[in-house]
Amino acid sequence: MSDKKIGLSDTMKAKTEPKSFQKNPITGTKFTIAISSAKGGVGKSTFATNLALALKKNDCKVGLLDADIYGPSLPKLFAINEKPESDGQTLKPILKYDIQCMSIGFLTEEQTPMIWRGPMVTSAIKTFTKKVSWKNLDFIIVDMPPGTGDTQLTFAQEIKMDGVIIISTPQEIALQDVRRGIRMFDKLKVNIIGLIDNMSHFIGDDGKKYAIFGEGGVKKTAEEFKKEFLGEIPINPVVGKQGDLGAPIVESKPDHEISKLYIQLAKKIKSSYL
Length: 274
Hints:
Layout: H1 8-16, E1 29-36, H2 44-57, E2 62-66, H3 74-77, E3 94-96, E4 99-103, H4 118-130, E5 137-143, H5 150-158, E6 163-168, H6 172-187, E7 192-198, E8 202-203, E9 209-210, H7 217-224, E10 229-233, H8 237-244, H9 249-252, H10 257-273
Parallel strand pairs: 1-5, 1-6, 2-4, 2-5, 6-7, 7-10
Antiparallel strand pairs: 3-4, 8-9
Helix pairs in contact: 2-10, 4-5
């Protein structure tokens, strides 16, 4: 009998080592791309919706899955106020802006808090990936919840994700969590497409660039982990205004400079997969 004592660190390490899971693709789509942020409030959902619309403008057939169970944003960002149809076996995505959409927010009242434990969240995710009748899609964009919890683990372990884009603002408090997110996806063997520096700066009335959250942190983090830096998206009040109106900037103002950034990124993603 070994005299070695198993300490707490050994026990925790054993529990956090990734296991081998059978990863299944989402039926009805060619590729699944997750949009993740380790920290909340960095513009992840706004990015996900505008990227989906930008892929559509690059002649792709696109679905948008709002997997942020505790804080769904898609009903507001797309101004969807209806419930999906069901045949008793599957849910039919709601079509808006030629995007097939699904969100827990379509099934609950706007002011209802989602007081769910982990197993219920996992069950909801499985429903959205296995019991939604996605049809003939090139891409599903998955708006993940912030952090590295149950939803991320369920997706990474059970769903074939073809890539993940990590969104962050440049301040260090956000980047600390980004590093944890990168390590999680690497450990779970999920391809990280790259990092986006969101709300990187704004241009003042004087024409000068103001990096109010710091500068260069996301790019440095990408270099630190040998990941691709996908670029910066500056702050612009029009982006928030159009999101609040349920008409995201890429759809409502496709010639805006911010829209052009999304459309160019979508073109790059399309060329990498299709």
